[in-house]
Specification:
By secondary structure, the chain is α/β, with parallel strands linked by helices. Helices cover 30% and strands 15% of the residues. It contains 62 helices and 56 strands. Strands 34, 35, 38, 39, 40, 41, 42, 43, 44, 45, 46 and 47 form a 12-stranded mixed β-sheet that branches. Strands 49-55-56-54-53-51-52 form a 7-stranded mixed β-sheet. Strand 36 and strand 37 (1537-1540) form a beta hairpin. Helix 10 packs across helix 12, helix 10 packs across helix 14 (414-423) and helix 35 packs across helix 36 (934-945).
């Protein structure tokens, strides 16, 4: 753009344009010159913009220049000639030819005279790379944000010598000695704007954007915006871009894209979009709000623009003329960028300049045409700063440049951003695979905007989110077919909008817009302009100044002619809307700064002066002084506390006693317990997952640290909870008498000192790896600032980013013993695309109802946001949410009178004035009633009068929320002053609640509290608000946000009229409303309508979180569709009007309500009204998350409320619930009913209702029945009570938190039916953290490994009891860990001890470690079963005299057996066997989960042997892990399995266990104790699991490194006998193979080790008894038992001398009741069970019965003994068996084969007559037989019942016939050892599957009683008959046909058959 032409045309604007036009036509490729006038506000050439828009984002300056060469061909040669400098001139670099220094460093502090319209810029000389030369250049020749719209040519002045009028850059460059070598293109050399910093020094500012690309700029802008503004839909690009460049602190020119210069410039859109906000570097909140606000007329609290329009610019900007310190946002183009960038860090880097301290400011943009001048007296005339939202303008160049009085306008890019985002909707669909669809047209966007503004009510503020949704719906409607395939939910109908069928053209647009606006009574004014928006803006300013827009709230300016594109902007001129929107652009810090500035500079004095003029008798203070003097010395009689009513009870000393005051004891409510259990189960599921992230088994105890925000009250409150919960004692962390200092170790206040305490916590966790540390982050939505921000601004505030630095530090993330639990009522900011918390680790507070069932019955119901909102719906007599219309009216009027004061200041002063006037009115100055509002008067009357109605003087609390600390201090001082002058100091206290300090209460009141709470300690002072229970007080609650402070039940009024109504973000809103959350007692019946439909069906809807939003809606769905205006009428209960309810004639909204209540004397009493509104059906759950509580409150009798007792919940959970205003003043719950409202006495009576007697009553009585009344600003009230078309409360669809942005404006709406879980998933998908958020850098979306495995999130409504729940969780977690290290083992005495054989032989060598073989052989065998598990089994008679007939148990049902077995809880020793839940470092490799072991690397081997009994070859399969192959012999590596290696008898090694261990198991893949690593003390051993074929896969999955022996499929339904049988046969077969193999190696067969171990899968620990004998044969000995390893036990047994002579070796079962008699003899010859060492060689010919299910070990023991073999029990060893409730023999269920419905089958049905129509059962015949005989054998052996002298003779087998029948076992084998039966007369004979050894002659040896019975059991009917014949049974036994039976099996299941008969 060099000066390529000669001649000067600088005289007039017209000549310039003419000149440019001629040049342009010469260059133009088209032949038709463009009209001169159309260029007066020159638009960039379309081709150029199109070209650039196509997106060359050139990345360095040189390239950019070349790029520009295209459209602008090189200049003619004559321009290149550089004339030599005149003689005698200065030619030094950095100086001008006159010799004056031009370098920035020299001039930075010099005053420079810059003519109007000129800017200072820095030129860069090639020869002075480190310096900038200062030049003054006419801003018209400089480009705008996009690099467009600079006039061609040049005009500049030299700031050194003052020479003016340089018209050619070449000439100018010569003068300033730039010494150019190439054609002097000015772009290359004029690099930077120069701006003044905070100290007034001139510094390098943003880059000058000579050539921008639209494409790039749009992106950046988005980015930036994402940082600080509400970024509607730039989801993808922008964010990404932004994130990549978090700019450090404050360099003015931050590289943002290619151009190093102006980020802003690159983003025009951004800049624009971001608007001042971003630009100012302010943080998002405002921006967002703005955005939202902006547009949304409806009360949708989205953020009301969170722009940062606010503070003055921090760097002087191009276009920011020195005269106007704070400008509007017109041109942030350049600076913005930087700002934006910095913003990403969340701080602003632009110095504050400006008249009004942090007023909201923005930068003027360089404009294409003449600047638009902002009139000087605009604010005085308009009474508010107009807010101008840029609309579409980028395609034609820049937004007009504003100059003049820039302080009085605010410019914001939010609307532009909204338009841009809505254009991206179609791209979103295309990515999802839909066909290309057109975005909504610009014309349609603008037209919809006009429609939207037209339908806004006069008191509504626009919200961007509403507008986005309107665009989205409109677009959906026009593309239904294309998107239907993509969109699951049917699109909602569009708001009133023109049909999309015929597209609107730009020519029609102004007409249509005007038409739309014509119906709104001038609230929207449309200005059409011809050439540029500047015309329209000038016109608007003119109309404003002339007062012609007095009724107009919105001005829409459109330029739509002559071009396909349109330019537009929307100016908000309504005083109410403009004030709210401009203030909403301030960040919280700026807001505080602005207020402090106004207070410090005395600007507020004008307010005070104004108030004094209102009072009839002069200044209020004068009145007060007068009153004070008149009443000095006596209190007005109206206030004296009335003498105690006679009815009050008196305590013994005569002092009055109030029965209503009772501090509730601490107890855990069912809900809290349920939540604690949910937390526990989530922790367990982390431990159970295969990721090994948490090894619960390795922890022995629990420790914790609770981190809370830096609020002294919250700190004390948490200490109180921890102290009283007893958790420290329960966790064993403290002893009985702990001090407060000790408790403080466990609570960390996140302030400056937190780091030291946190370091010691980390050190502690590092030093105690076996302690599980739970790090609880309470109030977790507070301070989510990234530590990166802290690194930038550490000096300013050390606490910034503290949570991130501590809780997200590497040590916490990596410590395997730290679990982090975030607890919050508002989890939204932790539920973003980048969150660290897995959705599976979120726990939501449960709903109280599911399917109409009260899940957790409680005597108190929670009353939260949804219930408050419900109280505002018609049909509820007492709205608990109200607004104060007279207060609002006064604030609005004063806002107009004092337009320069922030509305927070005005509101505070008005409210304090109202309270002061009300106090005076109550004190007797009745004329002051007119100077306060009815609401405030009601509050004050009740506050002062309540204590008089209670014998003890209990009163109520009024919470006055003043977020701004300086204003809170002002309010406190003023109210305290008024109270003092009125002599009310002893009537009520005023407390200033400041987060950083404790509570200060006057001595008089401390004394009262001590008396009420019966506190003796002299030094006691209340430290929490809960301790102020019953104290009449005004609590001025300050601080930007509540920090979790709980309030007492005596809170009656929650005055939130001063909350910052512009901060419409869901978290902020719910947090404020959460202060009023309450518990009501559940005794009062609900009134009509209270009953709700059943809550969610889904149990998971549990969390109210989900519902919170909906909650708002509850029953209001009918009104949702009305227009806002109607809605407001139907529901706004304006308290002013309601207070006059007694006059039913009052016309104001709400009067109907009032009338209703006053008219019916029987109206429900207050208590009823207050009761919690019922929940709202399914929605409830869906409401805003804060609301989850409501469900509780609802159903059933409503509740009377009681504030949370301190011990319960601690957090506030603001939900969006709101409710209506109270019908009348008097209604307020706590108000004294009689004197409640001065203005409406008549209203009182009806209110008092039945429940409230007229007699005086302590306010505490009502406290438990009624929630507090909440007063809200009107804007917030509307937002909270409004719902959208679907019934979803508006508040729920707001941006969830200041620290996040929406990922896209193309997002579905939250749904009313969403559960908390679904709501969490919604936010996880649709929100992204801002760059200042600690999760910002976490991960790319969707990567699961971005979640931290040991991090949980608990969310629940405010004040519902989350603190109590997580403390309870710590207790049950500790109990569980202890429980994990403990186990229930069977602890039963041996049975039948008194029946023990009294033999002459005892093993008396008490100290023998091993049995002496010869002595042992002489011991008799003890047939009696002593194992307690066989308590129900038949006794085995061995000797006639040993049995007494009365012995014998009572038969019991089998199910009872398990239930009644006694167990003891034992701590696991280090030698225990473990199940699959145990993981520790040592046994990882053993289990096969070691990283070096390939999981499941094992091979399957078949192993076959023949066995005659089965009549076929047995084929078994081994699964052998690679790591265990050394135990086996293969024909070759990887070849055929040949045998399992066996050691030698002579081996003495202590490194391994010689006997292979076999463990048969079924149904216990998780619970079986197969991990023997610790039990074997690390010794090498061979362990084989014996499993059924169908369970092979699951066992292999859980135990990949164990050897499995898989039984053949025919044994799938077999019992344990089959497993034992195959183990023994396989082992014997293997012994033979090993003998053969090793014989070849020269080893004798008898030297091969013949033993195996058969162990139950429930053997958990082994013990040894140590005996101290007084002497060899002495009767005196002492003994003790200790735990030892299985290795110790086995090596001891294996070392026994002559061990191969023993057939079976076992040990005792452990019992705590073991007596010295049982361990006195070291060895016994008796039955062994559970854990046996079996000699397979000696027992070669004795088999287990493979058909048996029960008692197979007893049966086998008897066979072994009868074969003459030795069974030895080591009495000094014992085994502990764990009680395992699953698997084992319990896995067999007997069911009917036919019916599908499981009917219980009783044992009597297990047999039937053959060929009958009996129901067949699906169970093995053998199992049916054994079960039947166990329970009903008396049917077969009636004579044997309890007849122990005459047992049943059982041949070759032992079957359990029940405890009341005794049996005598005999073996038919030749040479077998049997007892002598000659003395016995048997009462029955049992022949079970008898073989050929049983013959007729054998049976004839035995004697039977007459009438004895016989039972013969065979495999089929045929063998039954053959047996009868072969044994000649018919000789002595009589049979009848009907005595034949079979098991109830079908034929294919091979039933067993029985025949019974009687002895003749």
């Amino acid at each position: 753009m060099g000066n390529s032409y000669a001649g000067q045309l600088k005289t007039t604007r017209f000549e310039e344009v003419l000149h440019n036009s001629i040049e342009a036509s010469l260059r133009s490729s088209s032949l038709v010159p463009r009209p001169v006038f159309s260029q007066l506000y020159l638009e960039a050439e379309q081709q150029l913009s199109a070209l650039e828009g196509r997106g060359c984002a050139v990345d360095n300056e040189d390239e950019e220049e070349e790029g520009e060469g295209g459209p602008e061909p090189t200049c003619p040669p004559n321009a290149c000639q550089v004339h030599p400098p005149p003689e005698g001139c200065c030619t030094v670099d950095g100086f001008c030819q006159a010799g004056k220094d031009l370098r920035l460093v020299s001039l930075s502090s010099e005053p420079i005279d810059v003519p109007a319209g000129f800017l200072l810029v820095g030129a860069k000389s090639p020869s002075l790379p480190d310096h900038l030369l200062v030049c003054a250049v006419d801003k018209r020749f400089l480009p705008d944000d996009n690099g467009h719209n600079a006039l061609l040519g040049f005009s500049g002045n030299c700031v050194g010598c003052g020479k003016k009028g340089f018209c050619y850059f070449t000439e100018f460059s010569n003068h300033i000695n730039l010494k150019l070598t190439t054609q002097p293109k000015k772009q290359k050399h004029l690099k930077y704007y120069l701006v003044r910093n905070a100290q007034g020094a001139l510094t390098k500012g943003p880059l000058i954007c000579w050539k921008g690309s639209e494409f790039r700029s749009r992106q950046t802008s988005a980015n930036t915006c994402s940082g600080s503004l509400f970024l509607p839909s730039e989801s993808s690009g922008p964010l990404a871009a932004f994130s990549s460049e978090p700019v450090p602190g404050a360099t003015p020119s931050i590289p943002m894209g290619a151009q190093q210069a102006g980020p802003a410039s690159e983003h025009p859109s951004l800049a624009a979009a971001v608007g001042p906000a971003v630009l100012n570097g302010k943080d998002s909140p405002k921006h967002q709000q703005l955005v939202k606000n902006d547009l949304s007329a409806m009360p949708r609290p989205s953020a009301l623009g969170i722009l940062s329009n606010s503070g003055p610019p921090k760097k002087r900007h191009k276009g920011w003329s020195p005269e106007s310190p704070s400008a509007a946002d017109a041109g942030y183009s350049q600076g913005g960028g930087n700002r934006a960038k910095c913003e990403s860090a969340g701080m602003s880097c632009v110095p504050q300049v400006g008249l009004v301290g942090p007023a909201s400011v923005t930068f003027p943009a360089v404009a294409s045409g003449e600047p638009v001048s902002v009139p000087d007296n605009l604010l005085q005339i308009c009474k508010a700063k107009p807010v101008i939202f840029k609309g579409k303008y980028d395609s034609h160049g820049n937004f007009p440049y504003l100059c003049g009085n820039l302080n009085d306008v605010v410019v914001s890019p939010l609307l532009y951003t909204c338009y841009q985002n809505s254009q991206s909707i179609s791209r979103a669909y295309e990515q999802c695979g839909a066909s290309a669809v057109q975005p909504i047209s610009e014309e349609m966007q603008l037209l919809l905007t006009v429609y939207y503004l037209v339908q806004l009510a006069a008191d509504q503020v626009p919200l961007m989110e509403d507008l986005e949704q309107i665009f989205l719906r409109s677009w959906r409607e026009s593309h239904l077919t294309e998107i239907r395939q993509y969109q699951q939910a049917p699109p909602q109908p569009c708001p009133p909008a023109p049909s999309a069928a015929a597209p609107v053209t730009s020519a029609q647009l102004p007409w249509l817009a005007g038409l739309a606006a014509s119906s709104c009574n001038d609230s929207v004014h449309v200005i059409e302009c011809t050439y540029s928006l500047a015309e329209g803006l000038s016109e608007m300013f003119r109309l404003l100044i002339e007062g012609k827009l007095a009724k107009t709230n919105y001005v829409v300016i459109v330029r739509a002619c002559r071009s396909p594109a349109i330019d537009s902007c929307v100016a908000v001129t309504g005083k109410y809307q403009a004030r709210i929107l401009s203030e909403s652009l301030l960040t919280p810090a700026e807001y505080q700064k602005e207020v402090s500035y106004e207070l410090v500079t005395g600007k507020v004095d004008s307010l005070g002066a104004f108030f004094s003029t209102l009072c009839p008798e002069g200044d209020i203070d004068t009145l007060l002084d007068k009153f004070h003097q008149e009443n000095q010395g006596h209190i007005p009689s109206s206030l004296t506390a009335s003498s105690v009513p006679k009815s009050a009870s008196l305590d013994v000393g005569g002092a009055p006693v109030c029965t209503s005051y009772n501090l509730e004891p601490h107890h855990i409510r069912p809900f809290q317990l349920a939540v604690a259990q949910k937390l526990l189960s989530h922790v367990c599921s982390i431990a159970d997952s295969s990721t090994q992230n948490l090894d619960l088994g390795s922890f022995e105890k629990v420790d914790f640290l609770i981190c809370i925000p830096p609020s002294e009250v919250t700190y004390q409150q948490t200490l109180f909870h921890v102290w009283h919960s007893g958790v420290l004692l329960e966790l064993g962390l403290e002893k009985e008498h702990m001090t407060k200092q000790r408790v403080e170790q466990y609570v960390l206040k996140l302030d400056a000192e937190a780091q030291t305490k946190f370091k010691s916590f980390l050190q502690n966790s590092f030093q105690n790896p076996h302690t599980l540390f739970v790090l609880i982050h309470d109030h977790a939505h507070w301070d989510l600032v990234s530590s990166a921000v802290h690194n930038l601004y550490a000096q300013s505030d050390p606490a910034v980013g503290l949570v991130d630095r501590l809780l997200n530090c590497r040590e916490v993330k990596e410590a395997p013993n730290i679990v982090t639990l975030h607890v919050t009522s508002f989890p939204y900011a932790l539920q973003t695309q980048h969150t660290l918390i897995s959705p599976y680790n979120e726990i939501h507070w449960p709903a109280s109802y599911s399917n109409g069932v009260d899940l957790y019955p409680e005597n108190k119901k929670y009353f939260g946001l949804s219930e408050f909102i419900e109280s505002t719906l018609s049909g509820h007599s007492l709205p608990l949410l109200r607004y104060d219309s007279s207060f609002e009216a006064m604030v609005t009027a004063l806002g107009k009178r004092f337009p320069r004061l922030h509305s927070a200041v005005i509101r505070t002063f008005v409210l304090v004035q109202h309270y002061a006037a009300a106090m005076m009115a109550v004190s007797g100055l009745s004329q002051m009633k007119d100077y306060t509002s009815v609401e405030t008067l009601e509050i004050t009357q009740n506050l002062i009068n309540a204590p008089k109605q209670c014998p003890c003087g209990h009163g109520l609390m009024v919470l006055l929320r003043v977020p701004c600390l300086p204003l809170a201090a002002v309010a406190y001082e003023r109210l305290a002053h008024v109270r003092a002058r009125l002599a009310l100091e002893e009537h009520f206290e005023i407390i200033l609640g400041n987060p950083s300090s404790g509570i200060t209460v006057g001595k008089h009141f401390v004394k009262q509290l001590k008396m009420w709470q019966k506190i003796e300690a002299a030094e006691w002072r209340p430290q929490t608000y809960l301790e102020l229970e019953g104290l009449p007080c005004i609590l001025i609650f300050s601080g930007t946000d509540p920090h979790g402070e709980s309030l007492p039940r005596s809170l009656r009024y929650c005055d939130l009229r001063l909350i910052n109504s512009s901060c419409l973000v869901r978290t902020a809103l719910e947090q404020e409303l959460g202060l009023a959350a309450y518990f009501v007692s559940n005794e009062v019946p609900l009134e009509k309508g209270a009953r709700h439909e059943p809550l969610e069906s889904d149990a998971e809807k549990l969390s109210s979180t989900d519902n919170e939003d909906e909650e708002l809606v509850t029953e209001g769905s009918t009104s949702e569709k009305r227009s806002p205006v109607k809605r407001e009428r139907s529901r706004s209960h304006d308290s002013a009007s309601s207070s006059l309810s007694s006059k039913a004639s009052s016309k104001s909204p709400g009067s109907a309500l009032c009338g209703e209540s006053s008219a019916q004397p029987g109206a429900p009493s207050q208590g009823e009204r207050a009761r919690s509104p019922q929940l709202c059906g399914p929605l409830e759950e869906a409401r805003a998350p804060g609301e989850r509580q409501r469900p509780q409150a609802s159903r059933g009798p409503p509740s009377v409320i009681s504030r949370h007792s301190p011990g319960l919940a601690s957090q506030p959970d603001p939900g969006p619930r709101a409710s209506q205003k109270s019908v009348q003043v008097s209604v307020t719950p706590s108000s004294s009913q009689l004197s409640s409202s001065g203005s409406s006495p008549s209203s009182v009576a009806p209110v008092a209702g039945a429940l409230i007697p007229q007699a005086s009553q302590c306010s505490m009585t009502k406290a438990c029945r009624q929630p507090p009344v909440v007063f809200l600003p009107k804007l917030v009230y509307d937002m909270v009570t409004a719902t959208d078309s679907s019934g979803l409360p508006k508040a729920a669809s707001l941006l969830p938190s200041h620290s996040v942005v929406w990922a896209s404006s193309f997002r579905p709406l939250l749904s009313k039916t969403m559960t908390s879980t679904e709501q969490s998933l919604y936010y996880r998908q649709w929100t992204v953290p801002r760059p200042s958020h600690m999760d910002y850098g976490n991960r790319a979306e969707g990567r699961v490994d971005g979640f931290h495995p040991r991090r949980l999130l608990l969310s629940g409504p405010p004040q519902i009891g989350k603190t109590g729940a997580y403390l309870q969780f710590l207790s049950i977690l500790s109990r569980m860990l202890i429980r994990l290290t403990e186990v229930d083992v069977y602890d039963e005495e041996e049975i039948n001890i008194h029946l023990r054989e009294e033999s002459d032989w005892h093993y008396l060598q008490l100290s023998d470690p091993w049995p002496d073989l010869e002595l042992f052989k002489k011991l008799p065998f003890d047939y009696i079963i002593h194992d307690p598990k066989y308590e129900d089994a038949s006794l085995i008679c061995s000797h006639l005299r040993s049995i007494k007939s009365e012995d014998g148990g009572v038969s019991r049902k089998p199910e009872e057996l398990h239930a009644r077995r006694q167990t003891a809880r034992m701590r696991l020793s280090k030698y225990a066997a473990y199940n699959t839940y145990h993981h520790c470092e040592q046994c990882h490799q053993y289990l096969g989960f070691h990283p070096r072991c390939q999981l499941y690397e094992s091979t399957l081997h078949a192993f076959a042997f023949s066995y005659s009994v089965l009549g076929e070859e047995v084929r078994l399969h081994f699964i052998i892990p690679k790591s265990k192959e050394h135990h086996f012999v293969f024909s070759q590596p990887g070849g055929q399995l040949e045998s399992m290696r066996l050691p030698l008898v002579t081996d003495k090694s202590h490194e391994y266990i010689k006997s292979p261990t076999f463990t048969p198991t079924t149904g216990r893949h998780e619970h079986g104790l197969f991990n023997l690593f610790h039990a074997m003390d690390g010794a090498s051993h061979l362990h084989v699991l014996v499993v059924k074929e169908y369970e092979m896969a699951i066992y292999k999955k859980y135990w990949p490194n164990h050897i499995m022996l898989v039984l053949p499929s025919i044994f799938n339904s077999a019992g344990v006998g089959a497993a034992h049988f195959l183990i023994k046969e396989l082992s014997y077969h293997n012994l033979e193979l090993e003998r053969n193999r090793q014989e070849e190696l020269g080893i004798k067969p008898q030297d091969i080790w013949p033993f195996i171990v058969i162990s139950d899968d429930s053997c958990v620990m082994w013990n040894v008894v140590d005996i101290d004998c007084g002497g060899e044969r002495s009767r005196e000995f002492s003994w003790s038992e200790r735990n030892v390893s299985l290795k110790h036990v086995m090596q001891h047994i294996e070392a026994s001398p002559n061990i191969t002579h023993y057939a079976l070796i076992g040990m005792r079962k452990w019992s705590s009741k073991t007596g010295s008699g049982e361990v006195r003899e070291p060895f016994s010859r008796c039955h062994v069970h559970d854990f046996i060492v079996l000699n397979v060689d000696l027992t070669q010919n004795v088999q287990y019965n493979q058909n048996r299910f029960m008692c197979d070990d007893v049966d086998f023991n008897l066979r072994v003994h009868s074969a003459g073999l030795l069974l030895c029990r080591f009495n000094r060893f014992s085994v502990m068996k764990k009680q395992i409730a699953v698997g084992g023999h319990r896995s067999f269920h007997i069911t009917s084969k036919v019916s599908d419905n499981p009917v219980a089958i009783v044992p009597a049905q297990y047999i039937c007559a053959p060929d009958s129509k009996h129901t067949f059962l699906a169970a093995p015949a053998q199992l049916l037989l054994e079960k039947f005989l166990q329970h009903h054998s008396h049917r077969f052996f009636p004579l044997s019942l309890k007849n122990h002298s005459h047992p049943v003779l059982s041949v070759d087998c032992y079957l359990n016939l029940g405890s009341q029948i005794s049996v005598c076992y005999v073996s038919s084998r030749p040479h077998s050892q049997n007892i002598s039966c000659s003395d016995f007369a048997f009462s029955g004979l049992l022949l079970y599957l008898c073989d050929s050894f049983v013959g007729a002659s054998f049976l004839k040896k035995f004697h039977f009683l007459k009438g004895a019975t016989l039972c013969v059991i065979c495999q089929d009917r045929n063998s039954l008959r053959q047996t009868v014949v072969r044994l000649e049974l018919e000789d002595e036994w009589q049979f009848r046909l009907r005595d034949e039976f079979q098991t109830a099996n079908a034929k294919e299941d091979r039933p067993l058959f029985f025949l019974t008969g009687r002895h003749i």
